[in-house]
Amino acid sequence: MRTLVLLALAGFLAQLVDGSLGMAYGVTSTTLLLLIGTNPAAASATVHLAEIGTTLAAGVSHWRLGNVDWKVVARIALPGAVGAFAGATFLSGLSTEVAKPVMSAILIALGIYILIRFTAWGISSHSLHKPVRKRFLIPLGLFAGFVDSTGGGGWGPVGTPALLASGRMEPRKVIGSIDTSEFIVAVAASVGFFVGLGSAGVNPGWAIALLIGGVVAAPIAAWIVRIFPPRVLGSAVGGLILLTNTRTILNSDWVSVSSPVSTTIYAVIWLVWAAAVAWSVRTHLADRRAAAAEGTPKSPETAAAAED
């Protein structure tokens, strides 16, 4: 029972993060399942099964708030589904000994990207309302879907920053469109895992616990940015993913390091993580003071927060 309660809480917090950043539900939940010893493919399958419900709830919530660009959803969801199905069947064919460090390596890369992306640049918004081209969305969907299945998450960390960097959509519509299209990706990934794994290793109770937590959080996720600025939240999540998956790598058969070396690595990660969060908080407060002094939103991130 304690495990189910913790998983429900993790699903709730992960969905709050995902709803405000457009990413991190999958990587956060999968990281937790790996830490408690779940088979990598089963962990990803469990998370994607739960995501069918959480992404549906998130999509409805974003739609009701007007945060969805349906043209973008239509163009990115199908390629994402194809990539997710391919990634799920690929991961299902790997042995646990190989899959666990492979997944952790992908999650480390995603964690580093999230940490750097939000610490250094936060959320940007410029040249809005230009159409996002199919030749950009189709390969993005394929790649993000594949990474999402093999890493247990990645649709948001790949898709959200890419669409934000295009500068052609409001941040709230980027997040809403990515969250809504993820429903199709989660369904495709679940089908792929079912083909590759059947029901072996998938814990329905854990999936339901994650689902309940995520569904409860979905209606309020659009407002979380008012409490936790996206820049700060992104830095915090990126560091957490980096730290936990580094532990998995260091404890695997892939590497052999002494205790002093591993302690040093952990210490460096903690220091970098703390510095990144402190920098993000400082930058956010400076932007907010500047905006208050001028009476207008100085920072695009501040404007995005106001819109949500």
UniProtKB/TrEMBL annotation:
It is a multi-pass membrane protein. Its main location: membrane. The chain crosses the membrane at residues 72-91, 103-124, 183-200, 206-225, 232-250, 262-281. Keywords: Cell membrane, Membrane, Transmembrane, Transmembrane helix. InterPro entries: TM_pro_TauE-like, TSUP/Inactive_protease-like. GO terms for cellular component: plasma membrane. It comes from the Bacteria. It is found in: Cell membrane; Membrane. Belongs to the 4-toluene sulfonate uptake permease (TSUP) (TC 2.A.102) family. This is Probable membrane transporter protein.
